[in-house]
Amino acid sequence: EIQLVESGGGSVQAGGSLRLSCAASGFTFHLTAMSWVRQSTGQGLEWLATVTGLGGRTAYADSVKGRFTISRDNAKFTTYLEMNNLQPEDTAIYYCAIDTLGNTRGQGTQVTVSS
Q: Which residue, 21, 42, 54, 55, has fewest beta-carbon neighbours within 10 Å?
């Protein structure tokens, strides 16, 4: 059974930083590209970033490029999202996923950014 468990969300002021973690199990982690997606209230899922299985390649949405960094530690079966210079529009539930559409994702972690 695939399990993805996110953690690290919270409330910060604009300009602040957070680091999200996603613990994975139930699949061949090091062979699977991992992604982060988010969903704001009343909006659909928004893809943010993807890292390849061995971590050699990353890709980012324009909305987060230069502010967010995706990484992974295959020995710990964990994916990370380092988020800097957070803005109120980044307020959302953040999910890690094994696909870029977020069809297979965890339960999410709330990030709230106040101005």
A: 42
First to last CA, the chain: 40
**Hey, what are 104's tokens?**
């297979």
The strand pair at 78-83 and 18-25 is best described as antiparallel
What tokens does 45 get? Answer: 């899922």
Neighbouring C-alpha atoms within 13 Å toward the C-beta of 96: 29
The conformation of residue 89, written as its DSSP 8-state character, comes to G
Low-confidence ranges of the chain (pLDDT < 70): none
Q: Which of 5, 17, 13 is nearest to 77 (CA)?
A: 5
Half-sphere exposure of 70 toward its Cβ, with a 13 Å CA cutoff? 28
Q: Cβ neighbours of residue 75 under 8 Å, at least 6 residues apart?
A: none
Asked whether 81 and 19 are in contact (CB, 8 A), the reply is yes
| Average pLDDT taken over every residue of the chain | 96
